[in-house]
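Backbone shapes recur. Consider a single case.
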Amino acid sequence: MTAMKKLNKIKIIDLFCGAGGLSAGFFKGAVAKDFEGILAIDNDKAAIKTYNANFGNHGIAVNIEEWLSSHSVPVADVIIGGPPCQGFSLLNKNRAGDIRRALWEPYMDFIQKSGASVFVMENVSGLLTSEEFDCIRERAEEIGFVLLNPKVLNTADYGVPQTRKRTIAIGVKRADFLLENLPDFPPKPSHRAPEKPGTLPVWRTVKEFIADLPDPVGTDIRSEHPPYDLHFGRNPTAVSLERYETVPVGGNRFDLQRLRPDITPACWIKKTSGGTDLFGRLWWDRPSVTIRTEFFKPEKGRYLHPEKHRPITHREAARLMSFSDDFIFMGTKTEIARQIGNAVPPKFAEHIAHFVKQLMDLRVNNGEKIEAERTGATA
């Protein structure tokens, strides 16, 4: 008589996990049945409450160095996460000597101590050309890993209605794989830019994701069921409302200055060049720009609704990040906005998770035993 072996799930540790956008790709996507989260760490208490509300109670709000100093790292198959990106970001004008650059070091310590076979590091596009990335590659090689063609990927190419570019570096332990048998990285895109030829569907648009939402109600988190819990507005001043009404479809601060210089901030009038997204409207028929943590402030970017005279709401921002409406966010308005803007879009993370599953199916460590357990082979 034969007996079915219990599925041996791939154990995941998520570091600098935030609200869990990257984890969502592993635990809520098409390959979720293959993965199990055993530990998640972030020093943002509100983000950890969100993480645990969605993935179980293995998220811990703590400084990663403090945790390492007093705990043994559990055995894991895969380490995922992204050390805080502000130190690498092009928006940070004081990047030299930023202490946050060093947070990749405890991340690499976790990889080594957990015995993981694969790691996924996510960060801003600037990481790939930084001196720190050379150090990361060197440390990875020292602990027996090789990087699989690190790339800057555009999340719009993977079904997210947002042109968000991120560095993705995946490392595999040499001892656990036959490198010549591994799939090519990056994963094949699911969508294409409208101007590119091909048979793939074009990028998904703002209209597909938020056009069904009615006008927001109130100015605070509501007790209603999703999506309306996070679909609230702001109380703009009379001048702010005039500014919103002045910006045309697809317009920005330069249109405001051209049409109504009398209500244009003096600092913008003095600065005649610069980014065209500030105080801009999103377009219905395109993906959104990168959603950042202060998306509710039009002066920070192209965050005005495509046709309504208001900034996008928290729910609209979450949808443009590809979070499903049933994803639970915990915290204040500002804390939730930070979680949304700092997250990895879950739809993009699903493609990364599927690639990692492909890798783990090819792992040769422990020979046929792993493959038998993963596929539920009979005894």
